[in-house]
Amino acid sequence: MTDFHRIKRLPPYVFEQVNRSKAAARAQGADIIDLGMGNPDLPTPKHVIDKLVETIGKPRTDRYSASKGIPGLRRAQAAYYKRRFGVTLNPETQVVATLGSKEGFANMAQAITAPGDVVLVPNPSYPIHAFGFLMAGGVIRSVPAEPTPAFFPALERAVQHSIPKPIAVVVCYPSNPTAYVASLDFYKDLIAFAKKHELIVLSDLAYSEVYFDDNNPPPSVLEVDGAMDVTVEFTSMSKTFSMAGWRMGFAVGNERLITALTRVKSYLDYGAYTPIQVAATTALNGPDDCIREMRDIYRKRRDALVESFGRAGWQIPVPTASMFAWVPIPEKFQHLGSLEFSKLLVEHASVAVAPGIGFGEYGDDHVRIAIVENEQRIRQAARNVRKFFDAAENNLHNVVPLNKAG
Ligand SMILES: Cc1ncc(COP(=O)(O)O)c(C=O)c1O
């Protein structure tokens, strides 16, 4: 049997290779401190779980639900956008609930992409930003991930030299994996650019509430006047309410784009389990002290990471948002590339990180460190890393796996 067309477009996950190293080390008894996957370790707020439990077990809620989301949930998402961003959304036409933002993003790609369509995607980026379009038969052209003025000349070049002309541009701030944050001014320039070149803007705002400067919350691109003409934005319950396993997210914005996504979804799913949608409505409608607590915990972990790894001799660029630090590989190890370096960290420091290459070719001189273990474990990771660096100082080949060193 020849390779399937679609499967050929999905190379094996790079992260699988680090996972294999992790499993092997664990089998040898190593206590791996896992800062690899961006999987929130905090509990879902109790009042949200209580609502789920209260709603379960009623025959009405066991039936197929609403693919586009129950009306109360869509209203709650519109109210969140009003409160948080000052953006007015019609819950009937400009909001659709998704089975996590990842599903929404992938099916938006299905909805708008014709075979061979070109899409501008940041590199490095969260994998679905590229693979959603590749799966849909599109073609990717990489653009820089950093939201600086230099972004626009690069975008302009990409538009001029793509055949056919690109249909869309993807942005993601606060960014996974780089933790870059965009300003409203950047978004103003982006929307002007998109309108000039007739591009759709797809904005992934999964980390809207995971930020560390209380005076400077990340904006929504929809705050820009006229953005609604060309934009769809994705948000997620996964990080805001530590509900990653619940699979609940949203797409909001331009009516024509939302209608297209809603149509695709109406053929594919019946919506999330109703009690999940009801509990998600409760979460969105507040109270929001649980969000502040989540932020405080990540902020303290971020500080512990920067401080303890810095002392261990590995300078961490300070992230101002997201659950990640995007960290250059120390010079001594740079020639190895991010995958080999990540495997060494597992084997010799019992610390798992995500190799930058997993997010695109321009990520290979970095690793992504996720703050998904507690402060104590983060500090332990730093001590392990220090021992590994010290041993490597003598000879890279002399380093002994921690679990064997005792
Ligand atoms: C940038 C970004 N978008 C989307 C997602 C997926 O979120 P969800 O759980 O809503 O599918 C993640 C998860 O890590 C992410 O980092």
From TrEMBL:
Domain Aminotransferase class I/classII large intervals: 31-383
- The answer to keyword Transferase applying to this record is yes
Cofactor list = pyridoxal 5'-phosphate
EC number per UniProt:
2.6.1.-
Q: Which InterPro entries match?
A: Aminotransferase_I/II_large, LL-DAP_aminotransferase, NHTrfase_class1_PyrdxlP-BS, PyrdxlP-dep_Trfase, PyrdxlP-dep_Trfase_major, PyrdxlP-dep_Trfase_small
Drop me one GO molecular function for this one.
pyridoxal phosphate binding
The alphabetical list of record keywords is: Aminotransferase, Transferase
Coiled-coil positions are none
What sort of enzyme, by top EC class, is this? transferase
The protein's superkingdom reads Bacteria
UniProt record similarity statement: Belongs to the class-I pyridoxal-phosphate-dependent aminotransferase family.
Entry-linked PANTHER family: AMINO ACID AMINOTRANSFERASE, GLUTAMATE-PYRUVATE AMINOTRANSFERASE ALAC
Protein name per Swiss-Prot or TrEMBL: Aminotransferase
